Amino acid sequence: MATPKTPSLFLTLSLLCVLSLIFFFFYSTTTTPPPPIPKRALSTTQDCIKVYISPLPRSLNYGLLQKYWGLTSDTRIGSQVDNEIRKKISPKQSDTSLPYPENPVTKQYSAEYWILGDLLTPEDSKGESFAKRVSDYREADVIFVPFFATLSAELQLVVDKGVFRKRVEENEDYMRQRMVIDSVKNSEAWRKSGGRDHVFVLTDPVAMWHVKDEIAPAILLVVDFGGWFRLDSKTSNGSSSDLMIHHTQVSLLKDVIVPYTHLLPRLLISENRKRRTLLYFKGAKHRHRGGLVREKLWDLLIDEPGVVMEEGFPNATGMEQSIKGMRSSEFCLHPAGDTPTSCRLFDAIQSLCIPVIVSDNIELPFEGIVDYSEFSVFISVSDAVRPNWLVSHLKSYSSEQKDSFRRNMATVQPIFQYDNGHPGGIGPIPPDGAVNHIWRKVHQKLPLIREAITRERRKPQGVSVPLRCHCI
């Protein structure tokens, strides 16, 4: 007779245990506050990135603008428009209100100008900027180094091109690079992190050429990795060049690919008209290294019906030709040049001309945010150089597919826009523009950057953490 009561007793005891656990859990969670989250852990989920501006002298940023506009003239290709601007600039004009050069050779590498302008905008005017400037480097997520490296290099090429590759006092660009390095590396902020949380803008392949090895641990904003050659490469005389550095010093793990500043104006999807040319390309035929594919494509396509191949330079006349050519063509060819990418890609996007990317080693800005396959055609070099293959492939796309590409392209056009329409670039930026997307990509790197800093700190004296950035 006792057997039937046993399950009831068991159930009763089980219920009492469950109620006790529930009471204990409720009491403990309502009377004991949870442990505080470490302050540094919060910044990985914060809605901004905290940026400290390294205190460089103005001679290394806005002072270079004054120096550039103070030139009598610039005789290089594409500089006519800047010579006209010089006539209109007042000698008393504030250096922070000076425009960036319109010369396309320089303008395409103007990211640092717009990024610094955003950081210098007063907080109450910043609008939806993702970057929040802080006055103490110890509160910052990253340290921005405000050196106009492209302008420094271009000035030297104008004034005395002959010493550009030499580490001599006559090379003012080299001396400025040394000023930046000496100032930054002697700071407490650099010593604290080994430079790993410092941000340098190196969009021009020749920017900070002489000191790239010294800033390699930092976060580098580059248009691609094409200017970073392997140390084991040899020059024509058989010796390693001192300008070549380890290929392990750049990586998608820590660095950010940023867009060129586009040179052609934006075409709205509502303004798009019928396109009668199948494929368009304008640029130099002869390139080096990976750009040799361009010559092969040129020879294959030059006589193809529906294909326009123009050799030209980004001067005023060439720009008008490019606007007309890109806006009247279905596809725009983007072959590798001296480096895997070029400004041409972003001009095509602004022109709603479907990019045809023939560059096996290309890296693209904001991947993970932008899916380029939704508006671009990617072709391997081996396929592109097959006779008659490329044109036949492009003709296989239907009108519906091409219209879809252009609609998708129209949605991402603002992402590649730097210009905020304010003098000197100082003022509210477009919330969906290039500067905000750059800072968001830097923000994504922070956990790995902090891990690298921590690893370095725990190493015994005299032991260094090896560079292993080539794992992606």
Distance between the termini: 73 Å
Mean pLDDT: 85
Q: Give the biggest sheet.
A: 6 strands, parallel
Helical run tally: 17
| Beta-strand content | 5-15%
**Main structural class:** alpha/beta
Helix content: 25-40%
**Low-confidence region ranges:** 1-7, 18-45, 230-246
Count of strand segments: 11
Order of helices and strands: HHEHHHHEEHHHEHEEEHEHEHEEHHHH
**Gross morphology:** globular
* Rg (CA only): 27 Å
Strand order of the largest sheet: 2-1-3-4-5-6
Describe the structure.
By secondary structure, the protein is of the alpha/beta class. The chain is built from 17 helices and eleven strands. Helix 11 (292-301) links the parallel strand 7 and strand 8 (307-311). The radius of gyration is 27 Å and the shape is globular. Keywords: Glycosyltransferase, Golgi apparatus, Signal-anchor, Transferase, Transmembrane. GO terms for molecular function: glycosyltransferase activity.
What would you say about this model in short?
It is a single-pass type II membrane protein. With 472 residues, the chain is of the alpha/beta class. Helices cover 37% and strands 10% of the residues.
